[in-house]
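[User] I wish I could look at a protein chain and see how it folds. I have put the entry right below:
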Amino acid sequence: MTGNPGATHSAIDAVWRIESARIIGALARIVRDVGLAEELAQDALVAALEKWPGDGVPANPGAWLMTAAKYRALDELRRRKLIERKQDEYGHELVVHEAHLHIDSHDALDDDVGDDLLRLIFIACHPVLSPDARAALTLRLLGGLTTDEIARAFLVPEATIAQRIVRAKRTLSEARVPFEVPRTTELPQRLASVLEVIYLVFNEGYAATAGDAWMRPALCEDALRLGRILAELAPTAPEVHGLVALMEIQASRTPARVDAQGTPILLLEQDRSRWDWLLVQRGLTALARAEALGGTRGPYALQAAIAACHARARTADATDWPRIAALYDALAQLMPSPVVELNRAVALSFAFGPAAGLEVVDLLVARGHLRGYHLLSSVRGDLLAKLGRTSEARAEFEAAAGLTRNARERALLLDRAAACAS
């Protein structure tokens, strides 16, 4: 790929998105400082930007970045006068060609990369941080998202997210939070925020907040892997299995969510024969595990039950909308929020007619909830179109298109606006 800097930079960006969390996790284990680990990983990225355009992208770019980052970590340990204690432990991972860091295998990548990622997410979700800071830091470290993308996910200004991340890393460093998985006795109180963040990472992959792609499957895969690891770590926690069930079932739709040109296909218009039925079965099994543990169903188990309703319907017309509406009622009582109300409105519209859904949506608008959230305008436009109020629907779809930062989603919304006009 030499001689084409643009293509090389695109390749570097893609590799960074995939590998950054693993690299930061491995570095955090070495230097015991999440903020420093991210800085060292960024240094390795800068080295790639300087070297790869001339030398070409290496055969194993992830291992190249990992090795370059670890060299920088060892240099930092030398400056800290700790290299004697660490070099025996980590030195064997760094046998590479000195001149070009040439690697032909995955030897430089750690075998326990899953453990590193798990430790990293428990650090990012540590109780010493506020809930908002936990989510933002994890999306940054494990999702590889920019502050702008995270801000879009949280519907807050970019400067707010940047401040949260800086303060979170400083707090973790000052508190000397250990780089380890919590003890079994500490897990229950730590799991709730971890589950929330894992699902945020999954959602960013499932429906990207920005960019040209409708989905970022690598993020969904990372979230699923972390969820599965947690399910083994906490086998008696129903909500862990509920979250895994929810993600498995939603991920099963990935092959059918875009057409050959990458244009989004909405759920009720998807070819369900293209769904990954192995993932569906895994999701239903995880949901059964959650329900078998008994007790009141939590928010993830309820959302998984909703997803299961769609999965069990082999056609869109066979969907049990009254049951979905009832499940959303239960979810709204357990976890009241404007977003849940918006989803409940959609379910009500299918179960009892678009006017029932529009009543809930208009109440959200009147209360000023979700202002600037493109899906509010999108849902309202859909309900207005079904009621024959096409000019109003067109305005809502155009407003939604102006609010989204995802190019594919914008095109879909503009197409729907045009359909209203015709």
In short: Strands lie at 210-211, 405-406. Residues 320-422 form a domain with the Serine Threonine Protein Phosphatase 5, Tetratricopeptide repeat fold (CATH 1.25.40.10).
